[in-house]
Amino acid sequence: MGLRIAEMDDSGIQFSPSSNAGLEFYSLNVHQDMRIRTILESSLTWCALGDYRRIHEDKGHTYQLRKGGAEADILVIQLWSAKSEARYWKASHKASREALDSVRAANRMWEVASARLEQAGCKAQDIFFENGGL
User: Fold this and answer.
1) Which alpha helices (DSSP H) does the chain contain, by range?
2) Structural domain tally of the chain?
3) In a domain, 104, yes or no
4) Which residue range forms the structural domain that includes residue 49?
5) What phi and psi values does residue 124 have, to the nearest 5 degrees?
6) Whole-number mean pLDDT of the chain?
């Protein structure tokens, strides 16, 4: 995955599904990936492609793509370039909105305090994607 993302970056091609190259990238690397297809087909009655672009590093801040709550209404598929680092909070998707008390951030995501995640019983796990990943 990391090499495919680097090729797109190096060629200056947009990842946006509004471009032919971007749509082809998503089709080949997301829609046609059987790991993803199996989850989509068994979990959702319908799906749509949303494109957030890139989430840039912002040390000291934790962001979510949804406000929270135990009833998930979206499935997020993240494509990671080589040498990417991320911190995941295990079980954060099960924490209630009230427990997380996230606020809308300037980047249009939801920001939640690490202390709130810890109080909700979530455990931080740092992940390094040597070769990128899905």
Assistant:
1) 2-11, 20-26, 34-43, 97-100, 114-119
2) 1
3) yes
4) 2-129
5) -75, 140
6) 85
Average pLDDT over residues 11-21: 77
Question: Tokens 């990671």 label which residue?
Answer: 80
What pTM does this model have?
0.73
| Dist CA 19 CA 11 (whole Å) | 14
Q: Is the pLDDT of residue 53 over 80?
A: no
Q: What angle do CA 54, 59, 64 make, to 5 degrees?
A: 55
The angle formed by the CA atoms of residues 11, 16 and 22, to the nearest 5 degrees, is 55
- Name the residue with higher pLDDT: 72 or 2: 2
Report d(CA 110, CA 13) in Å as an integer: 28
Whether residue 87 is contained in a domain is answered as yes
> Is residue 134 in some structural domain?
no
